[in-house]
Structure formats: structure tokens, C-alpha cells
Amino acid sequence: MHETPPPTAANSSEPVRTWPPTALTVHRARHALAETLGEWKMDELGDAAALVLSELLTNAMQHGRVPGRKIGTRFLRLADGGLRIEVHDARSEAPSPREATAWDEHGRGLALVEALTEGCWGTATREGPGKLVWAELSWGGRQGNRPA
User: Fold this and answer.
1) In Å, how far from its chain's centre is CA 114?
2) How far is 100 from 105, CA to CA, in rounded Å?
3) CATH number of residue 91's parent domain
4) pLDDT of residue 94
5) DSSP label at 103?
6) Crossing angle of the two packed helices 46-63 and 25-39, in degrees rounded to 10
7) What is the CA radius of gyration of the chain?
8) CB atoms within 10 A of CB 21
9) Does any domain span residue 72?
10) Does 146 map to a domain?
11) pLDDT of 9
12) Among candidates 116, 117, 1, 12, which has minimal Cα distance to 73?
């Protein structure tokens, strides 16, 4: 996990889409992500991206929720052909991965994010209160290239 955003998307002018912290938010945000990936012809990243988004949004709703504040998402197309997913919430505390035991029902989300992004995820400050948690996915892994 990194504590600052990588330089590839640091100056994005894409807006942050806000969501109410309700049970339908993860579902709706996954659909918005799938639509975006379809428009960008990046459907191959869909399954991994949906799982990463789901885990980060669920964490934001469980641990980053502040009454009266919404949660935000932003999807960015990277110069190398990869995808950056950002989840914004109003709490400043960074997520901390933990090791789940065999019987734990929770505690595996950030391990999944770590595996799917090959460690390319982290937290950063943002304008206004709170933080953003970002994760990047690339074609064929960190060393791979986008298919022609």
C-alpha cells in the first residue's frame, strides 16, 4: 500500500461521482464502472475492477462513513492503458489490512485488493475532509501491455 497517489493520475479533472451510503450504492457504482469500461473498450478489466471497487466502497461505507456525507467514486483511464479506481470518504483514517482467520466473516477485502492490483493501491489526502483510497489495474499485470 502506498500513502500518496501515483503521478499517472494526480492532475485529473474528472469529477467525483457521489453516492449515498445505502445498501444499493455498491451495486449501482459497479454498473457505472461497467458502463465506463465499455465506453473505453476496457471490458477485459471488468471482473477484477468490479471486485476492487466493491471492496473499497464497502470499506468506505463500513469504516469511512460520516453522517450527512456522501461517498465518492472516480474512474480514470491511465496513460499506460490501465485503470485507476478512487473511492472518497469523509474520514481521514487510512484503511489497514488485517489477517483474517479461517472462521472470520470479514477482513479479506484489502487482501483481495492487494492481490488484484499487485500492490498498486493506497491512500491520499483530497480537497475537503477525508481521504481517497485508490487502486490501479493494468492489462496482464503490472508488467503487461494492453491487447491490440
Assistant:
1) 11
2) 8
3) 3.30.565.10
4) 72
5) T
6) 150
7) 15
8) 19
9) yes
10) no
11) 46
12) 12
Residue 12 CA to its chain's centroid (Å)? 15
Expressed as residue numbers, the domain containing 98 is 7-137
Count Cα neighbours of 78 within 13 Å in the Cβ-side half-sphere: 22
**Cell 502506498, residue located:** 2
Cell of 123: 491512500
Residue 72's DSSP bridge partners are 18, 88
Cell of 118: 499487485
Instruction: Provide the Cα torsion 86, 61, 43, 2; round to 10°.
Output: 40
**What is d(CA 49, CA 62) in angstroms, rounded to the nearest whole number?**
20
The Cα angle at residue 129 between residues 65 and 70, in degrees rounded to 5: 40
DSSP assignment letter at 99 = P
Identity of the amino acid at 125: T
Q: Is residue 2 part of a domain?
A: no
pLDDT block averages, 10 residues each, the chain of length 148: 51 77 91 95 94 93 77 90 91 71 63 89 84 87 44
